[in-house]
Amino acid sequence: MSEPLIQEAARTETIVSPIDPSERLAPFLRVPDRFNLSQGDAWQLVKGERSGLVFLNPRPTAETIGKFYEPTDYDPFLSLKPTRSFQDRIYAFLRRFVTLRHKADATLKRAKFQAGERYRALDVGCATGDFSVELQRRAKGVKLDLYGIEMSEKAVRFAIEERELCVKQGETLTVDFDVEFDLITMWHVLEHVLLLNETLEKLRRILKPNGLLVVAMPNPDSWDARHYGKHWNGYDAPRHLYHFSPKTFARLLAKHRFRIEDMHSLPLDSYYNALLSEKIRAEAEGRKVGLGAWLNAIWKGSIAASADVERASSVVYYVRKARE
After folding, report:
1. Burial of 35: CB neighbours in 10 Å, binned 0-12, 13-18, 19+
2. Most exposed residue of 10, 102, 182, 194, measured as fewest CB within 10 angstroms of its CB?
3. Domain 22-321 superfamily per CATH
4. Peptide bond preceding 32: is omega within 30 degrees of 0, i.e. cis?
């Protein structure tokens, strides 16, 4: 970590639990920044004694959080990389032909769009627009108006110029399209949001009464989270601010009059998280990342992928507004 970044890391804020502001918080685990392992276990996770929510505390501020994102090193921005490693190419192939297709089909199945009708779909944290493109491709007989919100200027430009999508730079609270949406998706985004409750309130306002909200996040109750401990890729401090299990996420949603209609695991995330966790552990211990890490990732990923949804590595939640 460079000296300026160390100074930025020192500028943090302490928060209360977003589920239960009055609950006591207990130390849970100290974790490293996977991009700066030489700094050791620099970040503290805490756990709410009543809600059970695990979250980063203290955490970077709105002014300093951006310093911890490096777009070409961060997987959602692979489309922007001038050159790709072997691991990048495998990830991109699986993402394009397996993961994105599965996500689009699962989303359309639960959205229950009617053939011949027109719908609006918003992807929050859309990166370069890969999911929106796949959603349109898989939506047979359905007309979709596709919108996106993304923080990265380069990714927004790529999505507009190369994908011809309606994408605005910013975040949920700073961007307005002045329309309501039939579908809002957040693929591994909500865990990054600083103003969590305010964001959920806005999502409720811009989602149509019968609209569908889709949220995917890592699961701290997963088998692999417990196996890898502080080296689990899903903790990804300080970029991941909250770590929701199915139970704690349901509690947060209830505050905002949402309910979980369905949920399922993302099996390929088990292998991906296992591989990166093996890499983080090896590098933290000063070992080379070789064939053994890949074999361990396949073995441990298979164990994680076989777990039920409550213990899945990543969970996709299909959420609708609760009845008044």
Report:
1. middle
2. 10
3. Vaccinia Virus protein VP39 (3.40.50.150)
4. no
